[in-house]
Amino acid sequence: MQKTANAVIIGGGITGCAVAYEMAVRGVKDIVVIEKQYLSSGATGRCGAGVRQQWGTETNAILARDSVKRFEGMNEELDYDRDIEFKQGGYLMVSYTEKEWDQYKKNVAVQHSLGIPTKMITPQEAREIVPHLNLNGLIGATFCQSDGHANPFHVVDAYYKAALRLGVKFETYTSVTGITLEKGTVTGVQTTRGDIATSTVINACGYAAGTICKMAGFELPLYPQRHQALVTEPVDPCQGPMVISLHYRLYCQQTPHGSFIMGVGDPNEPKDFNINSSWEFLEDVARQATTVLPLLKNLRVVRQWSGLYDMSPDANPILDEVPGAKGMWVAAGFSGHGFMVGPQTAVLLTQKILGQECFMPIERFGLARFLGGELDLESAVV
């Protein structure tokens, strides 16, 4: 492994690979990406693959809106030899409580202010979009046709190949063991395969970002939270959009191949690194999914898995330079939506690192927001 680099990126998921590409395409040479396992082995490869613009905070909505535009043209932009499988079947977000419906109204107001074409619709209109939707207790729904889903493995592969063509080096099955500092400035990265001298480090390793920050003497306000998902046998197409119910903690979509991917959140999930699947989840998701979408009751499960959300205190990303470690940057705290905002997260962070004009105020994602004052909590996390 090489001994020096202009930039070392820790993490081989959507954020790390996209940052590598964005830096390289802007002319940065000698970039190394370090991944402790294989590319997409962390949260990216375990996510639900959804891409939505229906968020409650302006910051998340902007990142998602602009990332959708990138997903739409990604095959061409990255000259990908396969297909990222971005399909815009829409997102249908259903509401079963008045409190939830009031929040949806506020969210849609934010989205409309940003030009996101979300519609507020009646239960009957929702059933026209998803005929097997259970209307019992349904108050209303929001729908955005330009939302959709993509193949996370193919997206990362596309960024990887594009970055590789630009000269980026990728070191997989390599763990970071330390960060070298001199007088509060980063000077290198220590790994299981040798040390790399560098003045720029990007910490993009999801739920492990806190561990890396500790190596530089900083306690990142982030915690891991297990989320589980499953995939069913493939069946004939019957559901276009992703269906989300925050009340039932459910998301459910049918992939282009016919399988259903679904998951439910658990508010009682402990803050730890457990990624084992559980029988309790299987019972829970079956109960919630068949309540909202009764047609699914006869589907057979192929497999289930789990991954970790990297949760921030306000469920918004953290994009900032690490205090006391000049030259070390962190991109974490995506709280379950890192994949869908990955393309523009990479652009924004790269612009900041290179001293370029940022397309939106990156300070909104800074660590200073946790020092005092009221946080802008993201309400639409499932």
From TrEMBL:
Cited Pfam families: DAO (PF01266)
Molecular function via GO: oxidoreductase activity
Annotated TM spans: none
Domain of life: Bacteria
GO cellular component: cytoplasm
Record keywords: Oxidoreductase
InterPro entries documented for this protein: FAD-dep_OxRdtase (IPR006076), FAD/NAD-bd_sf (IPR036188)
Every FAD dependent oxidoreductase domain range: 7-351
Protein's name in the database: Glycine/D-amino acid oxidase, deaminating
